[in-house]
Amino acid sequence: MKNNYPNEQQKFDKTLAALNREFASIRAGRANAAVLDRIMVDYYGVPTPINQMAAISVAEARILVISPWDVSTLKSIDKAIQSSDIGINPQNDGKTIRLNFPPLTEERRKELAKQIRKFGEEAKISVRNVRRDAMESFKNQKKKSEITEDDFKIAEKDLQELTDKYCKDIDKAVESKEKEIMEV
Prior knowledge:
Structural class: alpha+beta
Number of helices: 4
Subcellular location: Cytoplasm
Protein name: Ribosome-recycling factor
Function: Responsible for the release of ribosomes from messenger RNA at the termination of protein biosynthesis. May increase the efficiency of translation by recycling ribosomes from one round of translation to another.
CATH architecture of the largest domain: Orthogonal Bundle
Largest sheet: 4 strands, antiparallel
Keywords: Cytoplasm, Protein biosynthesis
Order of helices and strands: HEEEEHEEHH
Shape: elongated
Strand order of the largest sheet: 3-4-6-5
CATH topology of the largest domain: Topoisomerase I, Chain A, domain 4
Strand content: 15-25%
InterPro entries: Ribosome_recyc_fac, Ribosome_recyc_fac_dom, RRF_sf
Helix content: 40-55%
Number of domains: 2
CATH class of the largest domain: Mainly Alpha
């Protein structure tokens, strides 16, 4: 029996990548176009991401500029940003939308840190679910005598080590993002 688990490892990697995407969408007091990734604009009845409707650039450390390719979508983009939970009011000048990122308040930093920990815990749950599913598969193989008791124990140990490694990686990512958020 092989002692590597490409399917499980791929699922763990996807979980870690999803966590990092979530973290990228959390603003840390600096202009970051990723905060707009989850905002959908109603464009002719179809929810469309802003980055597919406009050029997004960082003008200064705390200012994002959104330049729609179709100027008629300015109001829709403006409305979508206002109704989102990013906590920034857009400034529409008729051609572009400017987003000024104010420095984060201590209260907002604590809220974001709590949200980061929640995302981290969800990622760990996902990793544990992958481990649980793999263990069920190993138990079924053992039950059908496809693998020996020794192979089962080795697989269980190796999979637990892999799970622990990814849980530590998640903890490091959470700690790093929390540190970034709490930095004044």
